[in-house]
Amino acid sequence: MPSSMIVFLILAMLLNTGVGVNFAEVFESSWAPDHITVVGDQVMLTLDNASGCGFQSKNKYLFGKASVQIKLVGGDSAGTVIAFYMSSEGANHDELDFEFLGNVSGEPYLVQTNVYANGTGDREQRHSLWFDPTTDFHTYSFFWNHHTIIFSVDDIPIRVFQNKENKGVAYPKNQGMGIYGSLWNADDWATQGGRVKTNWSHSPFVATFRAFEIDACDLSGEDTVAAGAKCGKLAECWWDKPAVKQLNKSKKRQFKMVQSKHLVYDYCKDTARFTQMPKECLD
């Protein structure tokens, strides 16, 4: 690992703050509860050839920060996907995704991020990680406000999605999103485009989550109008203060380093896929 990245990691650990939550109080199983095990502050998700599993928050949130520490599946995890994401409901949903794509032993884990706004996604980016995410826990975070969405790893920004509504680009700002986690089989696409399939002789596959932190506007079932009144007033909440409106100089340097060394796919550069580039890709 580069010495500069080590320094950034140490700073991130010192600066990391948040509001810890109790898993059982905030979350519930969304499918296959028999494949979810809670031991102390750790939540273990299991995938075998019978089922994967997932959990979801009981409430929905709009603007703020949500994070979790995850230790990914070790060894040959090809075909598996571990997801930590936020999503509203319905066809025109908003969604923010971390998806960790399983790998053949010895190959680097890739993390895929995506942004859906008003039902439209196809905004994938993939990054390699500068550490082995299977040997220890690392923190994965969403931060979002009226202006920007930031995906971070150990408090280091890896992706920034700006509000470009002035260019006709939909932006997630009206729909409360639940917080989700899951482990599932996706060997039709997850590893080398689906060429490498899940080796069930290595199952059960286990991913461990812990240290959930949520510092966001809790809607607690309020409708869209109420959400706008509660969470939508500019500059009244910490996530819309000028200090967090955009990346500071230090974070910009970190972001530039990650983009130059670890970005392996960007939909905004995929001219073979898009005959006309998405509007948010055009500066």
TrEMBL record:
PROSITE patterns: GH16_1, GH16_2. Keywords: Apoplast, Cell wall, Cell wall biogenesis/degradation, Disulfide bond, Glycoprotein, Glycosidase, Hydrolase, Secreted, Signal, Transferase. GO terms for cellular component: apoplast. One of its GO terms (molecular function) is xyloglucan:xyloglucosyl transferase activity. InterPro entries: Beta-glucanase-like, Beta-glucanase/XTH, Beta_glucanase, ConA-like_dom_sf, GH16_AS, XET_C, XTH. Its main location: secreted. This is Xyloglucan endotransglucosylase/hydrolase. The lineage of its organism: Eukaryota, Viridiplantae, Streptophyta, Embryophyta, Tracheophyta. The gene is LOC107761064.
